Amino acid sequence: MSAGLPIALIQTRTPATAAAGLAHIEPLIRQAATEGAKLVLTPEGTNLLEQRRDRRAVAITDEDQDACVIGLRHLAAELGVWLLIGSAIVRSGHAGDDRAANRSLLIDPHGGIVARYDKLHVFDVDLPNGETYRESSTIRPGDAAAVADTPWGRLGLTVCYDVRFPHLFRQLAKAGASMIAVPAAFTVPTGEAHWETLLRARAIETGAFVLAPAQGGTHEDGRKTWGRSTVVSPWGEVIGKLDHDDPGVLHATLDLTAVARARAAVPALTHDRDFAAPR
């Protein structure tokens, strides 16, 4: 594992079709690579954001037929970068279930898919401002956590709402993750109240870098997302942040030796104890 990893987080305002999603994000990824990033991460819903069920049913396709996924695999190979597609909304592939998968894909510099992760926790909520979300009606949750090997260390995969489940992050860290991705499309009310606090807490608890590329702004389907893509160090410091919800590129350099220092200073990952559950 080497220090000084140049990364880039891509913040988007993804449209409602995969072809438009690719056209939207490609120039931002090219910019990131031109400016030196070796690992590029994109948000949740990189290929499309469409919450209207009838339109989503028309827009989604299988992973290997999605125009944005195909285009980004070719782009990673062309640019010679590692690329995390924070998630693509694609058919789940489960017979008898017409819900989609919210699937994170790690692409190597040859364009190959080296890891997949389907979002474990789906967001069903009635917000105080009157907004209602029922992600479970259109997204089939995954059933397995994922950690992937990279040239710089292990990368733990999560998506958005997963950030509220610290036990998942703890398991990723115990599986060797020195970096944990949190691609997201946070709502504005929850983003304003909780986004940075949750990201910093997960970094502190795991002693890992937390890399959180986000969607931002008002989308074609009417949803509004918070933006504020953020990079947090293993000590809980915000070392990079976009202070807006517009599309853009956030660069950071990760000193991966900081992971061992943080975990040595607070070795909580080694201090778990069995205990009786409360009654």
From TrEMBL:
This is Carbon-nitrogen hydrolase family protein. One of its GO terms (molecular function) is hydrolase activity. Belongs to the carbon-nitrogen hydrolase superfamily. NIT1/NIT2 family. It comes from Brevundimonas aurifodinae. PANTHER family: DEAMINATED GLUTATHIONE AMIDASE (PTHR23088:SF27), NITRILASE-RELATED (PTHR23088). CDD domains: nit. It comes from the Bacteria. Residues 5-256 form the CN hydrolase domain.
